[in-house]
């Protein structure tokens, strides 16, 4: 079930708190794990919101260096920043806006993105780093990529599954992106309306949204390659065998 507190009033793109969901042992704590799209050129009221309303302590940026160079996150005093480039391995599918525009078969492209997020060495290293660091502090953090839908979406799904949230609620949070990005997606489509063919524009429209099939593909790959989610955490992400219990002890109430 969607909790109203997820929709804290802010115009930061695709922003929400993924806490509050029921788990097998209680509820995932709210006010700690926030997800969003890029934090480029933030308005003063958004900076104030991150600093003084949710008391953010750290930003995790999952984008590539070239994405960051083009549209860097706003520097916010007293908030730490870390870039974890999840898709740095050679030849990987690229979920940046540029590749959304030029991909010839968009459905195939999107599935390949999720294959890379599960299986590529850089993604496994990156998610390992991100998840390990969450056990060092329970202070509020935000994680994001460009649109906050694929790299960020899978990160949120991992967190929720580790917490013991139901599959239905994991997919619910994932699909909220389509509602949260509706305005921004319309603006992007308008921007490209005169420069892209109708076919390319339609493909871009598809790529700016998420489908349950994409996340299902990722979880299917986990099962195919590792047999079980816990084995994926241990063998794929190289997390300690007690990671889930430690995470739940810290973040389930």
How is this structure best described in words?
The chain has 253 residues and is of the alpha/beta class. The protein contains twelve helices and five strands. Strands 1-2-5-3-4 form a five-stranded mixed β-sheet, covered by helices on one side. The chain is globular, with a radius of gyration of 17 Å. The two termini are 18 Å apart. Residues 1-5 have low confidence and may be disordered.
Q: How is the secondary structure organized here?
A:
Blueprint: E1 16-17, E2 33-36, H1 44-53, E3 58-61, H2 65-70, E4 80-83, H3 97-102, H4 106-119, H5 121-133, E5 141-144, H6 151-163, H7 167-180, H8 182-192, H9 198-207, H10 212-226, H11 229-236, H12 243-251
Parallel strand pairs: 2-5, 3-4, 3-5
Antiparallel strand pairs: 1-2
Helix pairs in contact: 4-10, 6-7, 10-11
Quick structural summary:
The protein is an alpha/beta fold and 253 residues long. The protein is built from 12 helices and 5 strands.
Search tags:
single chain, 253 residues, alpha/beta, globular, disordered N terminus
Tally of helical runs: 12
Through-space gap between termini: 18 Å
Strand element count: 5
Low-confidence stretches: 1-5
Beta percentage is 5-15%
Spatial strand sequence of the major β-sheet: 1-2-5-3-4
Mean pLDDT, nearest integer?
Answer: 90
Q: Please tell me how large the radius of gyration is.
A: 17 Å
Structural class: alpha/beta
Query: Oligomeric state of the chains?
Result: single chain
Query: Sheet with the most strands?
Result: 5 strands, mixed
What is the element string, with H for helices and E for strands? EEHEHEHHHEHHHHHHH
Shape: globular
